[in-house]
Design a protein that fits this description.
The chain folds into two domains: about 5-200, 2-enoyl-CoA Hydratase, Chain A, domain 1 (Alpha-Beta Complex), CATH 3.90.226.10; about 205-255, Lyase 2-enoyl-coa Hydratase, Chain  A, domain 2, CATH 1.10.12. It is built from ten helices and ten strands. The protein has helices at about 30-45, 80-100, 115-120, 150-155, 160-165, 175-180, 190-200, 205-220, 225-240, 245-255, and strands at about 5-10, 15-20, 50-55, 60, 105, 110, 125-130, 130-135, 170, 185. A six-stranded mixed β-sheet has the order 1-2-3-5-7-10, with helices on both faces. A four-stranded mixed β-sheet has the order 4-6-8-9. α8 (about 205-220) runs antiparallel to α9 (about 225-240). It is globular. It starts with 5 loop residues before the first strand and ends in a 9-residue tail after the last helix. The mean pLDDT is about 95.
Length: about 260
């Protein structure tokens, strides 16, 4: 399918979704929301896709909402931001978090507002050294959305999360890695290659096991230790019946690399 605001491709078990409105720093308008939603649904339905790479075209990852797409000026009618979140941003974040495959985000420049939190919704975030993360909501009288108030305190702690959200201070890629906000920083020239390499590797791993791992870690925030131990028992029991587990054990004893199929 021909997209207007994104690029989408799939090869070797890896899908790549590129936000493609570089003239506006890949900020979201209604059309891009629709196309991202459609591409995520196609990923969900395609069992041959075993990893997803999300990135942005041009000099930035995503500047959040395109304010020109719903500008509020002077005596113009107010915008229903609750409806915007309900119908556009929240379904997108939920769709990403629910994907039963690893989702890697390659942040290639500014990630601001909802763009920053879109990155944080992914499982592994790799950033170019020149990247910056900005919770820009306070600059226009809003609170962090797209999961920002959920992701930030879990990743960096409550005190730092409040400071980032209330001050809107830009965070460099190195600072983001140091505070545990993201996984890794690489030189700008290496970002695309390293992100793709990581996705290719993840696409050869036991997909069901990775899906169960990320789901269990997310659920752990709300569970007691006893509940989490029971969850691990139940999911481990199911994984122990998988073809990938049998292959992994066989490869161990045969002293060879495993050939996982994601089943």
């Amino acid at each position: 399918m021909a997209y207007q605001t994104i690029q989408f491709s799939e090869s070797g078990g890896v899908a790549e979704l590129v936000l493609n409105r570089p003239d506006s720093l890949n900020s979201f308008n209604a059309a891009m929301h629709a196309e991202v939603r459609e591409s995520l649904e196609s990923v969900r339905k395609n069992a041959s896709i075993r990893a997803l790479l999300l990135t942005g075209a041009g000099r930035g990852f995503c500047a959040g909402q395109d304010l020109g797409d719903r500008a509020v000026r002077g005596d113009s009618a107010p915008v229903d931001l609750a409806r915007t979140l309900d119908t556009q941003y929240n379904p997108m974040i939920r769709a990403i978090r629910a994907l039963p495959i690893p989702v890697v985000c390659a942040v290639n420049g500014v990630a601001a507002g909802a763009g920053a939190n879109l990155a944080l919704a992914c499982d592994l975030v790799i950033a170019a050294r020149s990247a910056k993360f900005i919770q820009a909501f306070c600059k226009v009288g809003l609170l962090p959305d797209s999961g920002g108030t959920w992701f930030l305190p879990r990743l960096v702690g409550e005190a730092r999360a409040k400071a980032l959200a209330m001050l809107g201070t830009p965070v460099s890629a190195e600072e983001a890695q140091a505070m545990g906000m993201i996984y890794r920083v690489v030189d700008d020239s290496e970002l695309a290659g390293e992100a793709r390499k990581l996705c290719v590797d993840l696409a050869t791993q036991p997909t069901r096991g990775l899906a169960a791992t990320k789901a269990a870690i997310e659920l752990a925030w709300d569970n007691s230790l006893d509940t989490q131990l029971d969850l691990e028992r139940d999911r481990q029991g199911k994984l122990g019946l998988s073809a990938d587990y049998r292959e992994g054990v066989a490869a161990f004893f045969e002293k060879r690399p495993p050939k996982f199929t994601g089943k």
